[in-house]
Design a protein that fits this description.
536 residues; alpha/beta; 6-stranded mixed beta sheet; 20 strands
Length: 536
């Protein structure tokens, strides 16, 4: 491993200064002599693979390390060593001097309180102001992040991008000196990502704060960071000005990250014959009732408005759109998990309602977070073998185990992983487990719902290659449902663009990317993080 180098001297008047920070968990050193500096008004990108120590660094700075963790060194904020402060003293600084924005806003928001109440609560915890004053300042903070007029809404009434903006409003309401954003845009579509990052950057410049932006997405970080620090297995391997570091990386670890961040576009292929599609959706309409009661008329909102699409046998198809466009609703409708008011779904030429056992095994799905779909009490081979219950006849237990172990081998986990439980696997390994579980039935169609968006760039490429190879062996068609346009461009042959419940553009992926016909598609592509564009 190469030594860390700095292409730029550390800021003379550093807002945040880490010196020799070491963190040990369970007796193993997870951060090793970490030195970092962050100046007022600066954005420092902290990047690296999963397990490199990025989030651990954020937790160490904020004093939120898990029980039993051992930390040494110095974490200086405006010259004050945070590591020697008592817990009450750190409580006084979190929120007031250190603002935190994490990946999943729903875990940071109270579902029983309105957005305005939650921002106001943060203000009243640190300042002696009245409820009325806090409410007014909360509304002003929400307006600053583009949420004017939404103070009375609860988290479930907001989109993913709006919830993330609400968390940012909470984090910046007290104008903290240091803002830490840990994967703040992973779950957002490209336009929401661009808006949130622009907002963070503007707030840092406006307030003179420092922003520590933690992400596995190099193109995204390249578009906003002044400097970048690269971690590898708890060590700082390289840091310097963002453009210099990415244009000419000096360490092999950084060079590998840069290479993995650029997915090669998929070559154009002939348009398939859709006369006899594997999957066909025709005129799908989905409405939900909102409100209504004894004295009020209900309002019906149309989530899908006459959606039609097809997937040919063995084809790779992408479905993209921003948050709220109807992707998740359409996915549930295609899998017969959502009732329809009109239209029908046909699989292998037969009407698919979800009750047809023989058809149900022909379509399988891999979700973004496999941990949510894996029973923590089951061993790996049992999890992989569970779908075999859809076979007729159902294989005996010995055969189920043999087939599961074979698939554990095929996805690169090895048969010796058969007795391990889900919590004993890394995030990337759990995703491989979910892939084995989905493909063991040899389905005709595999649906990937944001299946690689939470993986770091190195794992993302490996998992995409794995899926492509296994599906080619079996002739399995793929439907990618995602907000990650780079993945869609690299992995699909045809593309559907969804906006407000309607398909607004479709065609070969190469054509849609190179010659988008709709303004909406053009806006999505313009917001797509692009490493070459960021370094131009």
């Amino acid at each position: 491993m190469s030594a860390a180098r700095s292409a730029k001297a550390a800021p003379v008047s550093a807002l945040l200064r880490l010196r020799g920070v070491r963190v040990a968990l369970g007796g193993a050193e997870r951060l090793q002599a970490l030195d970092l500096d962050l100046a007022p008004g600066e954005v420092l990108g902290l990047v690296g693979e999963s397990g490199s120590g990025k989030s651990l660094t954020a937790l160490a700075i904020a004093g939120l390390l898990p029980a039993g963790a051992e930390v040494r060194g110095e974490v200086l904020l405006d010259g004050q060593d945070l590591l020697v402060l008592s817990e009450p003293a750190m409580d006084a600084r979190r929120g007031a001097q250190i603002g935190l924005v994490f990946q999943e806003p729903m875990t940071a928001l109270n579902p029983l309180m309105t957005l305005g109440e939650q921002v106001a609560e943060a203000l009243r915890l640190h300042r002696p102001i009245t409820r009325q004053e806090a409410a007014r300042e909360a509304e002003a903070a929400l307006a600053r992040v583009g949420l004017a007029g939404l103070a009375a809404r609860h988290p479930h009434e907001l989109s993913g991008g709006q919830r993330q903006r609400g968390v940012i409003a909470m984090a910046v309401a007290l104008r903290p000196r240091l803002l830490i954003a840990d994967e703040p845009t992973t779950a957002l579509d490209v336009r929401a990502q661009a808006q949130v990052l622009a907002l963070l950057r503007d707030l840092v410049q406006e307030q003179g704060s420092g922003l520590l932006l933690i992400s596995h997405d190099l193109p995204l970080v390249a578009g906003v960071a002044d400097r970048i620090a690269v971690l590898r297995q708890g060590r700082l391997v390289e840091h310097g000005p963002a453009r210099d570091l990415l244009r000419a990386p000096q360490s092999p670890e950084t060079a590998a990250l840069v290479a993995a961040s650029v997915l090669a576009p998929r070559a154009a292929v002939p348009v398939p014959d859709l006369a006899a599609p594997l999957l066909a959706a025709d005129g799908l309409v989905r409405e939900v009732r909102r409100g209504g009661g004894l004295f009020a008329r209900p309002v019906f909102k149309r989530l899908l408005d006459g959606v039609s699409l097809q997937v040919a046998p063995g084809e790779r198809v992408g479905l993209v759109g921003e948050s709220g466009s109807g992707k998740s609703t359409l996915l549930r409708a295609l899998l017969a998990l959502e009732p329809l008011q009109a239209g029908e779904v046909r699989l292998q030429g037969q009407r698919f309602t979800g009750e047809e056992r023989a058809l149900r095994r022909q379509v399988q799905i891999v979700f973004q977070d496999p941990a949510g779909s894996l029973d923590p009490r089951w061993r790996a081979w049992e999890l992989v073998a569970e779908p075999l219950g859809l076979r007729d006849p159902v294989p005996d237990r010995a055969l189920q185990r043999r087939l599961a172990c074979d698939w554990l081998d095929r996805v690169g986990l090895g048969a010796d992983a058969a007795e391990r439980f889900p919590h004993q696997f890394s995030g990337g390994q759990r995703q491989r487990l979910a892939i084995a579980r989905a493909l063991i039935l040899e389905p005709a169609l595999l649906v990937l719902d944001e299946a690689v968006s939470a993986l770091d760039v190195s794992l993302r490429g490996q998992v995409l290659d794995l899926i492509d190879g296994l599906c080619r062996e079996q002739g399995t068609a793929l439907l990618f449902v995602t907000h990650d346009l780079a993945v869609v461009r690299a992995a699909t042959d045809r593309l559907y663009v969804l906006q407000a419940g309607r398909i607004v553009e479709s065609g070969p992926t190469v054509r849609v990317f190179e010659q988008p016909r709709q303004a909406y598609t053009q806006a999505l592509l313009a917001a797509m993080p692009d490493l070459a564009r960021a370094l131009a």
